[in-house]
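Q: Could you fold this chain for me?
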Amino acid sequence: MTATIKFPRLSFDWNITPQQFINFWSNFYNYPQEHLYHDNINKGTFSASDVENLFLWKNGMKLSGKKLKALREITRHLDVINRLKADFSLDAFQNVFDKVTTIWKIFLLHITLPQCYPIFDQHVFRAFRFLRYNSLSGSPTEQVYLQEYVLFFDTIVETCGTSRKETDEALMMFGKFLKTPHGGSLCTLQASVSAATIQQAKQDAA
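A: Sure. Below is the predicted structure, expressed as structure tokens.
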């Protein structure tokens, strides 16, 4: 009887190209109310409603009272946001929005200048840490974002020729996978594979 049944086995390929990585993981992307992002992100000038819809999309669900209050503090500076969209200065941005929490501040940075500043959250940070350092430790700080992640992200986009949004989607889904028990074990598995490769190289050279 078992001869007629096909039994699957999952495997992990460590040797795919960056393009294949993006194509594979972006296929799993599914996020609620995606139109809120696409309908607003490329507008040359924002209304308060545009900004609110983008943050609603980012949150993935209805905003709590605390988050609504924080968002109103952001939209209070709508004139600054639109001025920065036309003539961006990171120093000017920091001067006005320095007190905004890290992830929301970076998302505001993204919607202000999406062609330069990618989306940043715990999932893409986890993917970055694994791909860059074979580690899942660390915190998604603003310093890491500005000094490391932006360059990491831009390099992938340039190498693959994919859109910034598709690249973000792939990193997000891979980062979500790494949060699972099976995904989290990849660091140990990769370390074992690397150690075995080094040992084999030593034996071949002997």
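A (continued): DSSP finds twelve helices and no strands in the chain.
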